[in-house]
Specification:
2 domains; alpha+beta; 54% helix; 10 helices; elongated
Length: 350
C-alpha cells in the first residue's frame, strides 16, 4: 500500500491532542491539597500500590500561537508538582509538532517555576494522542513514521530508516484499532474514541518514579562526596565520631529498606494484575525509562556508602580502644613515677 492509498483509507484528518508535562519537586508543602484520581475507562484494574493520589492545584485556558491550550497544575502530595499543557489539534500530522511541543514546554516550565520547583531537575515528557480516525492505526504509523519518531526523540533532523524501525518496535495494542508507541522522551497513543486518560496517567506515574530515583541518586552522590571529603585531611576526626557514624549508618539502612520495599511493592502489584493492558504498558514504559537500571545504580551506591561508613565505624572502634590503652599505659606510668618519687623521698628521710 502506498502512502497516498494509506492516507485515503484513513478518511481525512487525524484529530487529537498534544500533551506535554513536566514533573518536579517543590519546596512548598502541598500535603493539605485535596486529592482525587483520574477515572479509568478501560476494562483493566488500577495499580493499588503504585498509583498515588493526585490533587488538582489549578487549571486555566490560554492561547499559544493561535491554538487554545489547557494548562493544569497537579500534585502528588506533599512535594511533587505536575505541570501539564494540552493542545487540541484538528490534524495531528498537519502541524509542526516539534515547534508546538517547545512552546508547551516553555509554558510548563513557567508553571513549574511558579511553585518553586527546580525546573533544571525535572522530568519532561510529551504524549501525542491521535483519535477520530477509521481503520487500523498501523496505517497511520506507516504513513507518517518520520514525523512520529521525530517527536518521540525530539529530533528535528531526518533519521535513518533503521533507527525509525527500531523506535517503532516498542509498541503495544489492546483493541484492534488502538496502539501505543513508547520511547524515552515521548509516546504516541492511538485510540479512535479518544480514551487516553489512563495511559497518560501511567506515563506520568512512570516519570514520577524516574524523578524519585534520580533524586535519591543525587542525594547518594552528595553523601558519597561528603564521605570522601571527610576521609581526607583534617576532617578525618569528625568522620570517626561515634554519634555521627551511627546516625549515617541508620540513615543508609533506612534508605535501603525504603528503596527495597517500594521496588518490591511495584513488582508485586504488577504480578497481581497479571497480563492486563495497564500492567504490560507500564512495564514497557519502565523499560524505555531504564527504571530498573536506575534502581541497580542506587543499590550499588548504597552498598558503597554503607561500606565506607562501616569501615569508619570499625576504625573508630579500633582508634577508641587504642586511645583507652594509651590512657591506661600513661596512667600506670604516672603511678610508677609517683611511687618512684615517693621512694626517693623516703630514702632521703632515712
Amino acid at each position: 500500500m502506498t502512502t497516498g492509498e494509506t492516507v485515503s483509507t484513513l478518511k481525512g484528518n487525524a484529530p487529537g491532542r498534544l500533551v506535554v508535562f513536566l514533573i518536579g519537586h517543590t519546596t512548598l508543602d502541598l500535603v493539605s491539597v485535596e486529592s482525587g484520581g483520574a477515572k479509568a475507562m478501560r476494562a483493566s484494574p488500577n495499580y493499588p500500590g503504585i498509583i498515588p493520589k493526585v490533587g488538582l492545584l489549578r487549571t486555566e485556558s490560554r492561547t499559544v500561537e493561535g491554538h487554545a491550550i489547557q494548562v493544569t497544575a497537579k500534585t502528588y502530595p506533599p512535594s511533587v508538582v505536575i505541570a501539564e499543557c494540552t493542545m487540541e489539534l484538528v490534524h495531528v500530522f498537519g502541524v509542526d509538532l516539534l515547534a508546538l511541543k517547545r512552546r508547551l514546554v516553555d509554558e510548563c516550565r513557567a508553571l513549574l517555576g511558579s511553585y518553586r520547583c527546580d525546573v533544571d531537575f525535572a522530568e519532561e515528557y510529551t504524549v501525542c494522542c491521535v483519535s477520530g480516525y477509521a481503520g487500523d492505526p498501523e496505517d497511520l504509523v506507516a504513513a507518517y513514521p518520520g514525523a512520529i519518531v521525530s517527536l518521540l526523540k525530539d529530533e528535528p533532523i531526518a533519521l535513518d530508516e533503521e533507527e525509525i524501525r527500531n523506535t517503532l518496535r516498542f509498541n503495544i495494542k489492546y483493541a484492534k484499532d488502538d496502539l501505543a508507541v513508547v520511547d524515552w522522551d515521548g509516546a504516541f497513543l492511538f485510540d479512535p474514541k479518544g480514551d487516553f486518560a489512563e495511559n497518560v496517567e501511567l506515563l506520568q506515574i512512570a516519570n514520577h518514579e524516574l524523578l524519585r530515583l534520580r533524586t535519591l541518586d543525587a542525594e547518594l552522590d552528595r553523601r558519597l562526596a561528603k564521605a570522601v571529603s571527610l576521609l581526607q585531611g583534617g576532617a578525618r576526626r569528625s568522620l570517626f565520631r561515634s554519634r555521627h557514624v551511627r546516625q549515617v549508618l541508620r540513615d543508609v539502612t533506612e534508605l535501603r529498606a525504603t528503596t527495597i520495599l517500594e521496588a518490591e511493592a511495584i513488582e508485586r502489584d504488577i504480578k497481581l494484575i497479571g497480563d492486563w493492558y495497564s500492567a504490560r504498558l507500564y512495564d514497557l514504559i519502565a523499560k524505555k525509562l531504564h527504571i530498573e537500571t536506575w534502581r541497580s545504580n542506587i543499590n550499588r551506591a548504597l552498598d558503597t556508602l554503607e561500606d565506607i561508613y562501616t569501615m569508619a565505624a570499625e576504625n573508630f572502634s579500633v582508634s577508641f580502644n587504642m586511645t583507652l590503652e594509651f590512657i591506661l599505659i600513661f596512667g600506670w606510668l604516672l603511678l610508677l613515677i609517683g611511687y618512684f618519687l615517693l621512694f626517693v623521698l623516703e630514702a632521703k628521710k632515712a
